[in-house]
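Let us work through a complete example step by step.
Step 1: write down the sequence.
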Amino acid sequence: MRVVLMGAGHIGQTIATLLSNCGDYQVKVVDRSADALAKLAHLPIKTAQVDTTDAAALRAELKGFDAVINALPYHLAIMAATQALEAGCHYFDLTEDVTATRAIMQMADGAKTAFMPQCGLAPGFIGIVAHHLSKKFTQLREVQMRVGALPAFPTNSLKYNLTWSVDGLINEYCHPCEAIRDGQIIEVLPLEGLEHFSLDGTEYEAFNTSGGLGTLCETLKGRVQTLDYKTVRYPGHCDIMKMLLQELGMQFDQENLKNILRNSIPLTMQDVVLVFVTVSGERDGQLVQEVFARKIFADRNEQAPLSAIQITTAAGICAAVDLFREGKLPQSGFIRQEQVELPDFLANRFGSAYQQSRQVESIG
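Step 2: predict the structure and record it as C-alpha cells.
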C-alpha cells in the first residue's frame, strides 16, 4: 500500500518507523522541516520538504498514492482531508477537533474513498473499547471513559510534563465537550465535572475535555442514559489550568499560553498512558458493570526510546490503516472508530501495543 504521511513530528516519526519496517507499505513523508525529515534518513522511505500549509503543494505530493495519513496539527485537518479527496486517496488522521471531524464527515458523504479521522488514543482506541463493552448489555445505563497521558515522575506544581502536542492540549481544554445525560446529547464545559479516583494505589483526578468521545454520542444516542469522557491528571492540575485559562483570561490569548508552556514545562519521554473505561447496565436481568483498564509505559530502549503517547497514538492509527488494508473496515465513505472490532484491533501487529500493561522500569 502506497502511503503519504503528512507530518514528521514525534508521532509522525513513530508512524513512519512502524509502517516502513513491516514490509507492506511504501511510505513518503512530507513536512516543512528539513531537520525533522533528516531524522528519518535511516528508514527505507521517501521524503519531501513541503510547506504543509500550502494546499496545492500538498496535493501535488499525493499523485500515485493510495492513502494519506495526517499527523499535522489539528487546525490543518480539514485542508489535508480536502486534498486527499481531490487526489482520490483514502484518508486517516489523529484529530481530536470536533469541528474538523464534522467537516470531514460531510466531505466523506458519497465519496468513493474512505475517510477515517480520530485514529489515535482519545478519540480512537478509547471509543473502540467503550463500544465493544457496550455491546455486552441488553440495556445500557452508564458509559464512562477516562484517559490520561501523564509523566511517570511529576515534579512541578502542575504535576505535568509535555508529552504531546501543546496545540492539541490547549484545544481540548478550551472547547465545549459532548456528553449524554438522561439519554440526550448535551454540551458540557471543559475543566468542569471534576472527580477523583485511585488506580493501583495512585490518586488521580479527571475532568471534562473536548473531543475524546469522537462520534460515540451519535452511535449510542437512544441506547445509553449517561455517557461522558474525561481527561485524567494528577490532583491539582485542573485548578491551576482553570486559573490560567479562565481567571487570567488566557483562553483568549492561547498562543501566548502555548509559548509559556513550551518554555516552562519540560518535555519528557518517561510517561505513562492510562486507559480506564467502565460500562454498566442490565444483562440477564441483573445490573452489572464491565471495566477495561490499561497502563502503557514508555519504551526506555537507549537506542530508540519511545514515549507512551508515541507508542499508543502511532499504534492506533497504524492499526486502523492496517485493518483497512486487510479489508476489515469499509472501503469508502466515513468510518467511525466504533466500527473497529476490539479483538481485531488487539490482534493486529500494531494494535497489540495495547494488549498488556507494561511494567515501569526502576531508576537506578
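Step 3: interpret the result. The chain is about 30% helix and 25% strand.
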